[in-house]
Description:
Number of helices: 12
Distance between the termini: 36 Å
Strand content: under 5%
Shape: globular
Helix content: 55-70%
Number of strands: 3
Radius of gyration: 20 Å
Largest sheet: 3 strands, antiparallel
Amino acid sequence: xxxxxxxxxxxxxxxxxxxxxxxxxxxxxxxxxxxxxxxxxxxxxxxxxxxxxxxxxxxxxxxxxxxxxxxxxxxxxxxxxxxxxxxxxxxxxxxxxxxxxxxxxxxxxxxxxxxxxxxxxxxxxxxxxxxxxxxxxxxxxxxxxxxxxxxxxxxxxxxxxxxxxxxxxxxxxxxxxxxxxxxxxxxxxxxxxxxxxxxxxxxxxxxxxxxxxxxxxxxxxxxxxxxxxxxxxxxxxxxxxxxxxxxxxxxxxxxxxxxxxxxxxxxxxxxxxxxxxxxxxxxxxxxxxxxxxxxxxxxxxxxxxxxxxxxxxxxxxxxxxxxxxxxxxxxxxxxxxxxxxxxxxxxxxxxxxxxxxxxxxxxxxxxxxxxxxxx
Length: 375
């Protein structure tokens, strides 16, 4: 009963976020730059189509037993790596604003990193399920899964997609922690990754300026700190109840990427503190419901996969909201279910379908079935 209620809560939360996203894309997309041959409603139409595709995928996936993924983990991992490498191949990869995050064929383009997030969680969950009794060992419990996880993560990082890499890194660490990896190994790995990412950030003049702008947004309000400065003005203007849907003014050329990475700021302006807290509540409710569902999942693969999927939704959302509210430096990360973007929306909704499959094809067991660390 608790598992069924939790999956109902997950769907209710995500549908509310999805509807909020479509309304905000409708509001902010009308003010965003569109190609000359497209209408002002381009973003709304495309986002609605992406939402329908994602919902269709989620419903189909929810009917399929998630255990059927396990025989294909090798293909999934190799496919994710190949697609991430394709981002750097001329003629296939699309380079935009100095970043190589997309691949495109004719008029079709997508971000492999969004698909890789789910694929990596499947691979990690399968590995620790197969090697459950030795998850606390150094080589098979840490080094090998670290490589399986680290290689795609490194490719995403050198695509200059540090936001996605950071969120995915934390999500993978959550799976490894729950699987029983020794804490000191995880702490060491996180520390090394943090030093490496800090070196990357300080090694780039643009990223270094973003860090300076984070410390003093007003001083950089006409440069790299413009987005976060205008975002704070949007929150201040929105106040408690907001100025009303569609009545925001910062989206009219003042706030770059108002329909994508910084859409949360427009929620703050148009819906006020009430709207931002409602969004935060939905993400929190979705995460808690996912954890409750995990506690009632029958076997290890489903538990670990559910933790991974929930983490790939929660951490990007947390990092995005932290960036927009200037709690973290600007890293460029969409807000799940809400920001405009086809690949992110489709595969994030697909993750909800996979969570549903896990709940549907398992039943409650005792909590002491968790993987245990070995001495």
